[in-house]
Specification:
5 strands, elongated, alpha+beta, two-stranded antiparallel sheet, 3-stranded antiparallel sheet, Ribosomal Protein L22, Chain A
Amino acid sequence: MNANAADIRDEDAAELPRVRAQARYVRMTPMKARRIVNLLRGRTAADAISVCRFSPQAAAEVVGKVIASAIANAENNNGLNPDTLRVAAAWVDEGPTLKRIQPRAQGRAFRINKRTCHITIELVSIPKADADTQRRSRGAASKERTR
């Protein structure tokens, strides 16, 4: 019975409107960008923007721009309300690596790899009533645990 319930949830999630934004060939290592992207999955769009704004990592600025672009795409192209947007999926793929040479002593050369990445953010529009019930149910569950 749990498998059927999971299937229903997956079908409902597939029907919700999704918006995507992508930044390609960003001159940053994928590992550094993933540190920020991993913080954002499942958050609301406004919350994700504030996390990026106050993170000290350099990747936060680029990821914040991608989220802002996805929000703008949702608003202008699909007519979605920005307050209902949530980060459904976010990932960082490796882009092409620029290979450079650093001269060293006695005619040797060391390779320097300047890595690039592709950052993708997917937002899903969840109706306000669903978002409110999820918040309330979590709060009610935590209150019951403390009693």
